[in-house]
Batch of 3 targets.
Target 1
Amino acid sequence: MDFLIPYEKVAQRHPTKHAALYEALREAMLDGRLPLGMKLPSTRELAAQYGLSRGTVNQVYETLASEGYVVCKVGSGTTVAYRYAAPEARAASVPDFRLSAWSSRLVDLPREQGHPAAAAGLKPINFASGKADERLFPREAWNRCLYAGIRDETQWESGRASAQGDYRLREAIAMYVRRSRSLHVSAEQIAVVHGSMQALALIAQLMLNPGDRAVAETPAYSGIRRAIRSAGGTVIDAPIDEEGIVPAEWDARALFVTPSRQFPTGAVLSLERRQALLAWAARQRAVIVEDDYDSEFRHRGRSIEPLKALDRDGRVVYVGSFTKSMPPSLRIGYAVLPDSLVEPFVRAQALYEPSPANKLEQGALAEFMTSGGYERHLRRMKRSYGRKFAHLTALLQEELSGSFDWVPSDAGLHVFGWWKGSEEAYLAFRSACREAGVVWADTEPADNGAGIGRWGAYFHFSDLTEEEMREGVRRMNRILNEGAGASRA
Amino acid sequence: MDFLIPYEKVAQRHPTKHAALYEALREAMLDGRLPLGMKLPSTRELAAQYGLSRGTVNQVYETLASEGYVVCKVGSGTTVAYRYAAPEARAASVPDFRLSAWSSRLVDLPREQGHPAAAAGLKPINFASGKADERLFPREAWNRCLYAGIRDETQWESGRASAQGDYRLREAIAMYVRRSRSLHVSAEQIAVVHGSMQALALIAQLMLNPGDRAVAETPAYSGIRRAIRSAGGTVIDAPIDEEGIVPAEWDARALFVTPSRQFPTGAVLSLERRQALLAWAARQRAVIVEDDYDSEFRHRGRSIEPLKALDRDGRVVYVGSFTKSMPPSLRIGYAVLPDSLVEPFVRAQALYEPSPANKLEQGALAEFMTSGGYERHLRRMKRSYGRKFAHLTALLQEELSGSFDWVPSDAGLHVFGWWKGSEEAYLAFRSACREAGVVWADTEPADNGAGIGRWGAYFHFSDLTEEEMREGVRRMNRILNEGAGASRA
């Protein structure tokens, strides 16, 4: 009899003969080899063909019948009931989904840039990472907070937290921004997010219809442009100078800005400009998103208040994050929202995640903060990072001032400089340094403002030792002396 | 001298005199009480007025000057430099943000229904929760997986996982759906999500432009309509009958369906209809989202394959979840994606969350699954839930068949019935039961299909004891006998 099903092939991946025969018959029907109405062999014939017991074949037929693949009738045997889709229909059905405009925008966005990889060989010196220094982290104290959350016997009952985040954590954050950032806000105005990118993306989606304009600094964190463009918005590139963003009468619904420390140049926005931005937002009924990404690390002078502290009208969303101070796997940030945006924002969070997926981490961070562990850790980091900052600033100014204009700063976790030479020279220098294992982050030349025609480079130091910084600068210097990037002269 | 600043008020919340004076002056400027150009008192005068040292006043003036609030000039004293926004401009600036259409849709959506609360007094019997049974959960084994993740010394280095999810977890899920659901897929096709709602919402956003149509079963999980509407889609209400959704030639871009066990009626979609849906999707270039929310809990008969197992053309997204089997605080689900949707889906995940916020939980679940702990736990739950299922089914049929048409089922974590009486009688009965501490979940009458004009009620049992079920049914029966809902006769 010429009844061909892929039994042997299938048998290799199935533990029992029953399962193998079932799969083989099913596959043959799905592939159209056993067409609708075809009479299947009797249990006796099939059992003989494949060396099976009649009981096994019978069971398989019954299973297939119960699922509708075959019909068993007393007297007339078993016939195929599965209707194979005709090849014409199948050919037309390659997965050419019609995706939404949102989806197309996402796929068209440039991918988030990972850290550039250093060439193998030499010990890599990574000025691009910006991770918190593992050696400074009070791992035991933090782990105790996690263990306490795991052991918490009430967690089963309490079940789901609000999409807005663990309430204790929101209270701890409210206390923290009150003390350290002069923001007098309540836990109700705070939403816990999975890193600042989530806050930026949700705010863009809440404020922008496709075609609406939003202002971004040039240069800026790349995630800001991703957030605006994914919402269908058009980016207005606002130039910056030594005092930060230059206010203008933009026609826009949102402004993304880094007033405490322009990212990445480090410029501090003057009070006059801050007031100008707030007045602009009031006229435009626009929102200002203040991304305060690292200004808790102030090495000299008095801390600068966030723009949000001047915001009497509820125009500013303040975005903060723990990613610079906690382990890289902990993705917790927060948004301080004007009252009128709390409901839409939390609705947006709840759409995707009715209850936070990182309840354990949120609870542990609340415990770490209320027990004082977080601020102790922060003070220790500040001392260490202050020394590293001074060291790297001096090193770069002494060794590489021929090639970069270093921008002075009092705060933050990186040192920024403008490349003095040509684009070609910069690219040659960068690529030679990568070969030598030294990498950093940079910004492409802008069309206007301080970055016009100039490459900017910034060097993180938080997770490097002073010896590693020296070694990195030594290698860069050697490359410059050997002539790569020499056209700077 | 008549120089009024809110010093005493501010002093109560500030630890140092320096901080209190700074805040008081600043607040007076922000409120317009100290207008631009006003000359401030000399340090001597101010010190005398508030009983401060001249040094303190001097320091505060310097701080304010460094921030641009005041100007100090030798010889002419200190004057206000802050320009108070005129009341006209402020009046116009109430936070009347122009929100996006997406935002307005979100705010207009009905809120996710929480579980109805039982009245205080009697011990509540909650048939609405559907949480996994805490008593069955191998807390120690699971906690060991979490502890191992916390102690993992490499986690600092490995840093960020892909937005798509922990790779080991995706491999474990691929293995699991292969073994238990006959889905031959690889880790590359699996995206880990924060519960199935996230998958539904992202797929809707990826497939639907505002105005596009998507099909949902009537009744269905309320999150499906939330997902469609938030993306701007229009819902096509597809009727169901005893064989599940009734296929039609919908003009739509997406179909959300529960083939293994229609939610909440429990109907199993016939093979013929499954084929009809796949053929429809191919013609429409539409996606089918298969929500397989609880069919791993099969109490009788052979497990039914998911629709995805028939999907030769890459038309089906299969959505599964761990929320029915793991603690309620663990929010982990997954989507099995057709190849062509992997990139858009992961891009969408990465937009909001470049790296998962619950790396620890994902790693622990990977360990729990690969060590065999998860399937041991599942087997134990299945035995227990099988007994509870049989118990509740028998109890409801014996005691409440006068009021409900119970829908027979072989699987799942709830028992579904159609109310036989009038709407008024149902609402009176439900409210009397709530008063008596007994709550369950229900579905409103539909415009078409099996639910036309009928209330449906479903009773979860996973976290109830047999004694609690009996007590709940006893109370319901008493209420029926006392006459509430009596108009059913």
Target 2
Amino acid sequence: MSPEFNLIAKYFTRATPSADLGVGDDAALLRVSKGYQLAISIDMLVAGTHFFHDAAPYDIGWKSLAVNISDMAAMGATPKWATLAIALPEINEPWLAEFSRGLFACADRFKVDLIGGDTTRGPLNISVQIMGEVPTGEALRRDGAKLDDDIWVSGKLGSAALGLAHLQRKITLESEVAEHCLQALHTPMPRTDLGLTLRKKANSCIDISDGLLADLGHILDASNLGATVALDNIACHDFLRARLDEAIIQQCILAGGDDYELAFTAPQSQRHAIEQLAHQLDLPLSLIGKTTEKLGIEVTYKQQLLDISKKGFDHFG
Amino acid sequence: MSPEFNLIAKYFTRATPSADLGVGDDAALLRVSKGYQLAISIDMLVAGTHFFHDAAPYDIGWKSLAVNISDMAAMGATPKWATLAIALPEINEPWLAEFSRGLFACADRFKVDLIGGDTTRGPLNISVQIMGEVPTGEALRRDGAKLDDDIWVSGKLGSAALGLAHLQRKITLESEVAEHCLQALHTPMPRTDLGLTLRKKANSCIDISDGLLADLGHILDASNLGATVALDNIACHDFLRARLDEAIIQQCILAGGDDYELAFTAPQSQRHAIEQLAHQLDLPLSLIGKTTEKLGIEVTYKQQLLDISKKGFDHFG
């Protein structure tokens, strides 16, 4: 097993100040802050399914951790520790060096310590578990939305999906727009600061990974509510805004996925406080609709009902 | 993503009394007992590398969790929670039903709650993260062995490796012996009770997954010591005992791996207490050697030095 241990030591071992014991023993050891719950989430990324086989390893490293940190943001948890299990078809050191560079760039940016892991031989597969802390009882959940809540989304939606469509040659983008969209696709920025500040404001929260309608749908299903959403109110890149009449653009925003923004609901009484948040965090927060008693999601555009039946939106399903 | 969610709901969702929030949200939530550290370990198992493609899914399910629980035993931690990420080439419901049956059989036996996970499409790959608790400061580690410590191993070694050799047709076993060895290979029993009781007795501990010499070697490397080990003193199945002169049998015991027993060192002053433990737990505990100042491991058999250079023992490396 020597090659395995050399890999861990060489590419994934670093000081882990937030843990009592990091990489190197049978398990890592840590202490959770008093009065806090531990939040845990695991995500597996497979070459061919979650990223292209020839994607830049730096980007794969960044995104593997970022998508997990996003789950912490969605719970209102502070991300703190992560473990990484990776299967590699061969020991490709330049690839590993870049992968770990991207992973640690994300870890450093979000102050997450990599405290354990496993490397093995096999088809490329990356499994990251993230752990964070949230004051007991304050975690944001999917099932807390209330009737007549405001529905909000952070940031600008659709760019990552548009970047994917560009790579798949479904659309041609100017180089500047392409660059923006591909950056959104390859190196998303999870909204941890927003998640933390929403703890006592929002009733429910989820991160947008599959797509706004799909993920908002999880909140609504768990809370037994429906929603109305105005496409016009969803912030998006100028390029998408200018072409909002087109089906492919509408699909990118509503169903594209890979945004890693937060969708959340909050009482109307919190509206002003949330608008203040947007300024404090210098982050667009769009009020896009409200929860309803009638189940299902109705999307309007220019005050007209938009057809979002599966037929039109299964490109990205 | 509906198929993914149906899988989680159908096969992997159960009540999780030990967690505050289990499967179903962006993350699971739990509270660590006051005065305890959280121990975390992750293992990835790949078809073709860790198990045969046509291995019984019940066994794969059991073993995926068991090998992780064994890491908890090696730390002296009480295993409590687990998450499972699994990539499947296709949705094969009979396979999944059996896999989850084996996984939960192990979980129930060791009182572990499955609190989260991810299922995705891809070549078969199973990533399990285990979490447990240990009183702060009492975890058993690899680097705590002292000079002149007694070296102990639990249970009987070599059976699982012999089972593997039988499957690979390197040896032919009578059906009763084969059955015992294959059970050891497919459904190992991690030594959690022993791990807990060793907390204030042992100086160091590791679980035997790669093989006795390899894993004992990790303790010695971390503690900057060597060891002498008497092959004769290692408990093993009668079948191996009768053929202890043969190289293949010696290799199974010393280097076969997959035993998931514990190897640990303790001060000589604990000798009697540990012998008492063996009776209390109804578990063989073999005193097999001692730590030395001179680095490296010397193995003796019938008081003669045994040649364990890599050449003779790389079958299982």
Target 3
Amino acid sequence: MKRIAVNGFGTIGKRLADAVDAQPDMEVSGVTKTRPNYEADLAVERGYDLYAATEAGLEGLGDMAEGSVEELLVESDLVFDCSPTGIGARNRGLYEDAGIAAVYQGGEPHDVAGFSFNAAVNFDEAVGRDAARVVSCNTTGLCRSLFPLVEAFGVGDVSVTLVRRGGDPKQTDRGPINAIVPSLGIPSHHGPDVAKVIPGLDVHSMAVKVPTTLMHLHAVSLQLESRASRSDVLDVWETAPRVMQVDGGRGIGSTAELCELGRDMLRPRYDLWELALWKDSVTVEGDRLSFFQGVHQESIVVPENIDAARALLEMADSEYSTRTTDDALGVIR
Amino acid sequence: MKRIAVNGFGTIGKRLADAVDAQPDMEVSGVTKTRPNYEADLAVERGYDLYAATEAGLEGLGDMAEGSVEELLVESDLVFDCSPTGIGARNRGLYEDAGIAAVYQGGEPHDVAGFSFNAAVNFDEAVGRDAARVVSCNTTGLCRSLFPLVEAFGVGDVSVTLVRRGGDPKQTDRGPINAIVPSLGIPSHHGPDVAKVIPGLDVHSMAVKVPTTLMHLHAVSLQLESRASRSDVLDVWETAPRVMQVDGGRGIGSTAELCELGRDMLRPRYDLWELALWKDSVTVEGDRLSFFQGVHQESIVVPENIDAARALLEMADSEYSTRTTDDALGVIR
Amino acid sequence: MKRIAVNGFGTIGKRLADAVDAQPDMEVSGVTKTRPNYEADLAVERGYDLYAATEAGLEGLGDMAEGSVEELLVESDLVFDCSPTGIGARNRGLYEDAGIAAVYQGGEPHDVAGFSFNAAVNFDEAVGRDAARVVSCNTTGLCRSLFPLVEAFGVGDVSVTLVRRGGDPKQTDRGPINAIVPSLGIPSHHGPDVAKVIPGLDVHSMAVKVPTTLMHLHAVSLQLESRASRSDVLDVWETAPRVMQVDGGRGIGSTAELCELGRDMLRPRYDLWELALWKDSVTVEGDRLSFFQGVHQESIVVPENIDAARALLEMADSEYSTRTTDDALGVIR
Amino acid sequence: MKRIAVNGFGTIGKRLADAVDAQPDMEVSGVTKTRPNYEADLAVERGYDLYAATEAGLEGLGDMAEGSVEELLVESDLVFDCSPTGIGARNRGLYEDAGIAAVYQGGEPHDVAGFSFNAAVNFDEAVGRDAARVVSCNTTGLCRSLFPLVEAFGVGDVSVTLVRRGGDPKQTDRGPINAIVPSLGIPSHHGPDVAKVIPGLDVHSMAVKVPTTLMHLHAVSLQLESRASRSDVLDVWETAPRVMQVDGGRGIGSTAELCELGRDMLRPRYDLWELALWKDSVTVEGDRLSFFQGVHQESIVVPENIDAARALLEMADSEYSTRTTDDALGVIR
């Protein structure tokens, strides 16, 4: 039973704690917060030991806290760093001092761990490492749809426009309210980040931010290197891990209905751990394949994190780990 | 075991079917749809017998449908009418022809049933009736907070501004995108509708529609007829049925964090069956009491409908019914 | 010809500079910026001398800047402080050192000037003062509709719910995207602020923030102290200064159509300097008067600022000033 | 002096009437409405003769109307059809019966006129025709940026993702409020529509709809057929007609600041007749050129319509017409 710490019990952290708790071979050693808010209350209700992420937090949390993050780390085998973007890199020394393995999130740079992880692509290379970075939600989504195509047909140039949510549902201080905000640097960082996981794959990305909270949406257009029909492509994705095909013809016409689907499936927090691919958008014209996909920014990386933990801690091989993760969570395989 | 039909398996209908399914003393006889969309698929996956709500639907649903709504009704003891606003009144003949009890939703006029229902206020009067109308989400929310005050202190004039969501999450064709839309007729229909349930209570309401999908929010200001302190009021609400006090100081600062709370509580579809009252907004100045409350438009009427069914079918008394409903769903009492 | 400085050429400042420029008896001595952005470019195109609001700004603006804010102030008779909320109070010493009159905006506290101004209410009291604070857009709007009623009929308790915009159109970093955010402290500061201008008027306000950028909307309900019919009230407002009656029956159904009206009137920046009152919402029930009004947060205080300048500098009496201001801008009287 | 009718005085129609009114060689013969709303009031205030677009409108408009649309047409030389999408095609017989030239909008199919117009591309081919269709705002925007590149360098495959506004500011009944809605058919109709104007140009388009009202935004990526540097491209666009380069570095970071720019330029209705190109987004990598552009859906087609009228009525050659149009409106050339 491996003991896993969650440093930062927020959007990603609370999902990872619940996901660890659902696994047969790991348990939550504790979670951290900086303030005594409703998420801290939730940690207590769930029975997770609560620690203070910062010195100020130790005072703010008062009796709620069992101790400091340092005290938590020494009792743990691995830590999920779920601190806000940019703080993760600053925490590295903390984890190294505690002598435990660390999994970082995609907001941190590749160099924080020297290794960017996706379960389907490079699990084996992660085995036994001290640290790994699970790539961001957008990059994870792109790896999920692209890697099976690379293996089946070969893929040339990929162009993707990322239509990004402005903030998560609970981030009410984030905008925009009524604007489309392009990332003027082209390509955006998302495309090149894919090559950190799938070396040699050339993904050219442009990104815009829009006034929505639910999901990101990708408009993808790519060159297939060998001849494939639309149904060949759909067949490949049918068996691709953590990919869910959805049907506009059944009324799944937007990111909102995708989330409604998550609600109707009675998913916890309506999480969509799978990449959602609109099958009626899949279009092959000559060697060009185009399609739309939806990425649930709050949850798509959850299963990847669990697998990364098993790889670092040498707990299982890729097949066993991903099957165990998916069964425990209820991921559509 | 009473057999309950759900006519219209949409936003309210799918929740009512699941709620019926969770009760020990009733079961879903079948549900209806007009089109073969993802909600029809859901009905099938859940194991609910699917019927066609309309003749066109019978063709559209094809093999998915067990038959027509008429065929469903004759096998049922009671029907929840969950058809779009205005259609319910047109369905009345259908239910009368089938000779079964009917529960209508608040979008229909009072006259459709001649009786407007709220479990805490007038359960006993509904016992044995042929039909009842569960008042709308906004009216239900107002009854929840106001009735206990009426009983404890007496209530004079009530002023409420309803800040309404533009559409439900899945209703992507509804606006506004960037506007505040007042209902120019004053008072709006919501206030007078409360008096259909609590006779003599004078609620003056003004309503605006805003670009959000999550919840309605009410700004309430009223006169207490007997002296009461802030803590007297909070004490009354502490034991009021289906009322949940929430705390801005713990980070529940908006309707978005309220829904995040529903997600973190792992509620199905993050439903908030309770009226949410911001306890740190509760202010007493002289005889004036002011506060904010949040209403989850998709789910707040679910427990009321279940109780209405028990009342019409004379299955239980008020106390037994509400306790059974709440235990089965997991409502905070 | 009085020389007027505008310290902060942003949302309010650029409007005030253009408004000064349009008056026959004052001119723009210069405007300030902190950064060389498109608004700085605009100042140059308009022919306004540009100064640096801060030391860092002096470097950033480079050749665009004529000098420092201190250099601007000594060449001016009065300054409009249009710096971000809270900075105005810190600038007071600067203006006192330069020995010039200062007009502050409503984001600053009453104490910054010791006097809160509205042209129709207390112009005469401002004459010859060193400083005045023009009350905020919301308070200005409330003074516009309420003061004529106070004078005509007497006004008892006033209840208002302010439905506020989340940010101005250009403030793309502000939210919320999808939430209703109540100000949990009741009453909100807006109501009591009216009493700073109209002593003794008791305005009880509750405020919520919503995902829109265009305007604020107020739901107002008040007690008339002497009997008045709906048409009596409309008559009073017909001659009230800077009040515009709009008609839902002609399709002005929301804040969006109000702004469309400003566009169709070919207003600069579609500014609505007038308070917009929905005449078909005006309802009298007994002694209670209820109505909706819209406040254009970017521009409603512009004419008040110009009048405040004339009062402080003893340039004109109230009637001459307001008529001159309104004629120069094109305000509906 | 050519007499121009505007059939449909709404979003496009009111702009075209004002644009005609500003030209030295044409005048407004009349405009039509179906209902007596604020836009009908505006027509009267502007001094445009108002006619009823429909028989029901004749009754609704009452004394406001001078007569029927048929009466207007016989007194006119040309009509701008600005009726809602799809109605234009049904009006064709009306215009043919009156024996006058007709300009349709881009919501109508190419076949309605048999000719799709853009002033810079095919003015000469339109001379003397009975009818032309000015292509939609999105297609017009694409023609503006692409045609100069075709002429200067040659252009191979073009990929564009159109991020579309959900509705115009005044269309408060349109959504989505919180969703990204992909057009599942790929390619969307926008790309192929470009080839109706620039034969042989292969534009592959994917479209999504988002919760904003201000502008469309295009993410464009294309192959240049001859070698060109970034500055070569910017030079070509510098002299391209009706193209405006904007600068993220000066704070124009989104469609909202673009509209703020239109406001600060004191444009009527803040209209942006020019295509807005983000110069700091322009990126050349090998033979691939990528960039973002913004399209003001309410106004970009206005100058094209005026030129189309001159072409059909053989009033001027291309150079004279476009210069006259642009000078009269104040378009940046």
